[in-house]
Sequence to fold (132 residues):
Amino acid sequence: MQILKYFMLLLIFISSTFIGKCISKKYAYRLEELEEIKNILNVFKSKIKFTYEPIPEIFNEIANKTKANIGEIFRNAKENMTILSAGEAWEQAVKTSETNLTKEDIHVLLMLSKMLGQTDVEGQISQIEVTR
Fold:
């Protein structure tokens, strides 16, 4: 009977450790994605400000240079822009992509869609800075 109790305690300890490691990895991935988004928004801001490239071209370039989860957002947004406006395409891409971001992070990214492609360069740059 005593052996069964120790075995159950060991099983609980191992499973709790495994669950804790999984949760901590999710937070670590979230931090990496947030840092990547911050860097990408800097690139996006400078491309809009200095090159005057169209948004789909900028999104395509960013998607090709970034990691899978965040690059997927930009890739989907670029593909969605064939039938939707830039803001709607961004909103749909953020909502449908699978990332480790929290609801609050996604809400902040969705705020970018309000002015994306609808205002002048300065308005878009200011919205990117607010999002960043």
Summary: The chain is about 80% helix and 0% strand. The first helix runs from residue 2 to 51.
